[in-house]
């Protein structure tokens, strides 16, 4: 979780505020409770087991905050029933105008490299957050995000890949990756998948971008479908990305011509031994021949066909995966994530039952 914060690259122009929410199953209480921790009181006595669990999590993020720049951490503990935990997350996100919630995948990697569900209640929580969050949502398949916590100098410690098929969720993934561009310890690759017989739309013309109309030209009535609009938004964002990163040697852009899901899987497999973090869109509502057949084998539709493939036990065994779903707000292609002059608010969440599974953390990123 903390390594994900590090690669998110908080800067002076784009600092990050993190709300770390430790979720604990309600047991023996008549009502739910929210505890706001004061990190300034470092010597306060630990009163019970729940506070001891929260204290361990708080200290880890507090230590990171002390050694990192342009990041602030607000730890909280919410004690409630599993059935209402998503409300705690969504209410916290709404109250603090959070831009991104990141929750942990309900499966964890085992010692033999497989993926095993720790508690199926976590899956229901994630599904409810996806359906009700007032902002964008990410689900993190955490395989450790190998590498140094303290990335410095020109040494590349993380290789990050964004897989782009198109649509709102993939644009959200590309915008999240945009935060990482200037990080000296990160190598970034954007792989765009293009259908072999697809004709790409040109980016918006200068007239379209500035709203200029020549009234001497004959009036032409055009009807744009939602699919056309989505393609134009894809092209515009990709065009801006390539212009901004064309002189950056740490950023790569590759287009893969594929015709079906089998070709797509083969292309992704060429990357799974190189990268330690994949960022992908959930692909909600997007039907594409490039992922045809993959949904038939998907066990966890909440992370999409591509996310489910990357999270499977026989694929990318050492790479973490961040699956993003864009919040449908005012239609901005980078809803809430591209904040060059504003503080970005991120919430860290950890789930626990009584007792909680050891080491199970939820990182919820909101603004």
From TrEMBL:
GO terms for biological process: inorganic cation transmembrane transport; potassium ion transport; regulation of pH. InterPro entries: CHX17_2nd, CHX17_C, CPA2_transporter. It comes from the Eukaryota. Residues 17-151 form the Cation/H(+) antiporter central domain. Residues 345-367 are annotated as: Disordered. Residues 159-329 form the Cation/H(+) antiporter C-terminal domain. Keywords: Ion transport, Potassium, Potassium transport, Transport. One of its GO terms (cellular component) is endomembrane system. This is Cation/H(+) antiporter 15.
């Amino acid at each position: 979780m903390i390594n994900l914060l590090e690669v998110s690259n908080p800067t002076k122009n784009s600092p990050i505020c993190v709300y770390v929410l430790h979720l604990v199953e309600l047991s023996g209480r008549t009502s739910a409770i929210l505890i706001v921790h004061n990190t300034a009181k470092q010597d306060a006595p630990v009163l019970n087991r729940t506070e001891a669990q929260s204290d361990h999590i708080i200290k880890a993020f507090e230590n990171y905050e002390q050694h990192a720049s342009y990041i602030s951490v607000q730890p909280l503990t919410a004690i409630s029933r599993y059935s209402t935990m998503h409300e705690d997350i969504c209410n916290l996100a709404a109250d603090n105008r959070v831009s991104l919630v990141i929750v942990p995948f309900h499966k964890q990697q085992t010692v033999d490299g497989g993926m095993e569900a720790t508690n199926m209640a976590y899956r229901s929580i994630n599904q409810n957050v996806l359906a009700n969050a007032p902002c964008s949502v990410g689900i993190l398949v955490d395989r450790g995000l190998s590498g140094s916590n303290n990335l410095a100098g020109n040494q590349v410690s993380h290789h990050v890949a964004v897989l782009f098929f198109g649509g709102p969720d993939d644009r959200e993934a590309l915008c999240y990756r945009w935060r990482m561009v200037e990080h000296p310890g990160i190598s970034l690759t954007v792989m765009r998948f293009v259908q072999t017989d697809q004709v790409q739309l040109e980016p918006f013309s200068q007239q379209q971008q500035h709203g200029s109309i020549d009234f001497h030209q004959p009036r032409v009535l055009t009807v744009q479908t939602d699919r056309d609009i989505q393609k134009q938004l894809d092209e515009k964002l990709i065009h801006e990305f390539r212009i901004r990163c064309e002189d950056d040697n740490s950023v790569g852009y590759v287009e893969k011509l594929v015709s079906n899901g089998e070709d797509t899987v083969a292309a992704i497999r060429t990357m799974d031994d190189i990268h330690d973090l994949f960022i992908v869109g959930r692909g909600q509502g997007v039907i594409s021949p490039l992922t045809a057949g993959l949904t038939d084998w998907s066990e966890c539709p909440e992370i999409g066909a591509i996310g489910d493939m990357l999270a499977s036990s026989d694929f990318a065994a050492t790479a973490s995966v961040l699956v993003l779903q864009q919040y449908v707000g005012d239609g901005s292609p980078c809803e809430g994530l591209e904040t060059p002059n504003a503080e970005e608010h991120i919430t860290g969440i950890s789930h626990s039952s009584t007792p909680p599974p050891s080491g199970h953390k939820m990182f919820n990123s909101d603004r």
